[in-house]
Write a structure and sequence with these properties.
Structural class: alpha+beta
Number of domains: 2
Number of strands: 14
Order of helices and strands: EHHEEEHEHEEHEHHEEEHEEHE
Distance between the termini: 20 Å
Largest sheet: 9 strands, mixed
Shape: globular
Helix content: 25-40%
CATH topology of the largest domain: Aminopeptidase
């Protein structure tokens, strides 16, 4: 295993371009939109790579044929050396690696539905990641007569970006506030003067904008997230961006919100939660 120097991230761009599902988080790392980590089997001609976003999302790609890298990664998934200090959510683009995981780690895999209420931390929890496709006509149909409780929607600025409460916030997806404000966009819903829900660009690449959403716990279920997302989607339509949405199938709230905004599920794939305390 080699930690790839940032100046050599370019060596993975061609490989990453072949991934057939949403991996904009990994592309953000490779293109230096924020500071992540990349581990490879060879600095100059990597055949296997593990790309780690600082928020905890990760991507495993490659042929799985390098014995040393394979040994390291199997041990890493089990956290045998206690290298992982927080949970990671891993996607895999490689039939070979999927086969290795099933063969080498079968006894350590636990489906998310079997872990409900148990919170086992000594297993690799297998969830399902859903990719959606935006349907503009369906969006217009679903939101044309939609209205939430009386609220105010504002575009994010320096003050409101820094005051967002929660964990799924812009500052966890961009290096700093200035980079987000210069290259990203977001909108917050305010209720009685309080910033209750925010939709923002978690990743922007070419004409693709992936939506991040955070709503204050006590204000969930009142339509504020839909209002914030609608403002961001309207911005995308006006500025020729394609809005992107992905979430865990197990995250029922996010899944239902996506459907209510005209997104249609098009792909499901395994989504491995690597626990920090295995």
């Amino acid at each position: 295993m080699i930690q790839l120097p940032p100046e050599k991230y370019v060596n993975l761009q061609e490989t990453l371009a072949k991934v057939t599902f949403n991996c904009y988080f990994a592309l953000s790392v490779i293109k230096h939109h924020l500071n992540g980590k990349v581990y490879v089997d060879n600095e100059d001609m990597p055949a296997n790579a593990y790309i780690l976003h600082p928020y905890g999302m990760s991507l495993l790609i490659g042929d799985g044929k390098n014995a040393e890298f394979k040994k390291w990664f199997v041990e890493y998934m089990l956290n045998l050396k206690k290298e992982r200090i927080k949970n990671e959510w891993m996607q895999v683009f490689s039939n070979n690696w999927q086969d290795i995981i099933q063969k080498e780690l079968h006894e350590h895999l636990l489906s998310a539905d079997r872990n409900v209420g148990l919170n086992y931390s000594d297993y690799i929890e297998v969830n399902t990641r859903v990719n959606f496709k935006f349907n503009d006509a369906l969006y217009k149909e679903k939101v044309q007569n939609y209205s939430s409780e009386e609220s105010i929607i504002k575009k994010l600025d320096k003050e409101t970006t820094g005051s967002i409460k929660g964990s799924v916030i812009p500052l966890n997806f961009w290096n700093n506030e200035d980079e987000f404000l210069n290259r990203g966009i977001g909108f917050s819903v305010f209720k009685n003067g309080e910033q209750v829900s925010t939709a923002y660009s978690a990743f922007v690449h070419d004409k693709y904008l992936e939506i991040g959403i955070e709503t204050v716990q006590k204000y969930r279920g009142f339509g504020h997230a839909k209002s914030a997302c609608s403002a961001l989607i309207d911005y995308c339509i006006t500025n020729n961006f394609e809005p992107i949405w992905s979430c865990r199938l197990e995250n029922a709230g996010s899944y239902r919100l996506a459907l209510s905004l005209g997104f249609e599920p098009v792909l499901q794939l395994p989504y491995y939660r690597l626990c920090k305390c295995m």
